[in-house]
Write the structure tokens for this entry.
Amino acid sequence: MHIEIRNEQQQDLQSIEALTQAAFLNAEHSSHTEQFIVNQLRKDGQLTVSLVALEQDAIVGHVAVSPVRISSGETGWYGLGPISVWPEKQGQGIGSQLMHAALEQLKQLGAKGCVLLGDPAYYQRFGFQSYSDLILPDVPQLYFQAISFVNDIPKGTVSYHAAFNATA
Ligand SMILES: CC(C)(COP(=O)(O)OP(=O)(O)OC[C@H]1O[C@@H](n2cnc3c(N)ncnc32)[C@H](O)[C@@H]1OP(=O)(O)O)[C@@H](O)C(=O)NCCC(=O)NCCS
């Protein structure tokens, strides 16, 4: 199976929305609004990275990355997610390829680091870990993880863009 990863293009937007909805349909800890979040981030000009994974020209995966704020004032940090792979295509390495590509693109952009909310059992393989001084309020500490590209983890409270509250 050959997977191509590239930046989203205008003609991909409906497929990305359908994919995101389908991927999170039966996901644990889902708000089922992830497709709205991706759309709103794009509308608000906050979709720093938006990569699709293609198998024979069909979109089978997507990852979004957007800027986050840290209460310490540290800049250059981003939040990864939502990340989605078609249910029938999960467990074949597509998510891992998207993760590596998104982190690589962030480094190319000069990002200092990236945070995400997710299962540590999955994300630690990409170098993410939780840090007691870097907090996302109201979520279990272990599930909020970070990776630094500059060997320095900020201390503070992280906020995602308001687009994460989108419900339609
Ligand atoms: C999470 C997701 C993007 C991973 O993509 P994928 O293509 O299935 O992942 P890969 O094939 O690269 O990796 C599979 C590995 O990750 C593990 N894994 C996948 N999703 C996981 C999860 N939510 N929690 C823990 N482990 C997970 C699998 O058990 C497998 O482990 P193994 O390599 O030790 O066998 C995909 O499963 C998905 O779309 N899930 C629904 C949406 C979601 O929950 N997104 C993440 C929250 S933002």
User: Anything to note?
Assistant: The chain has four helices and nine strands.
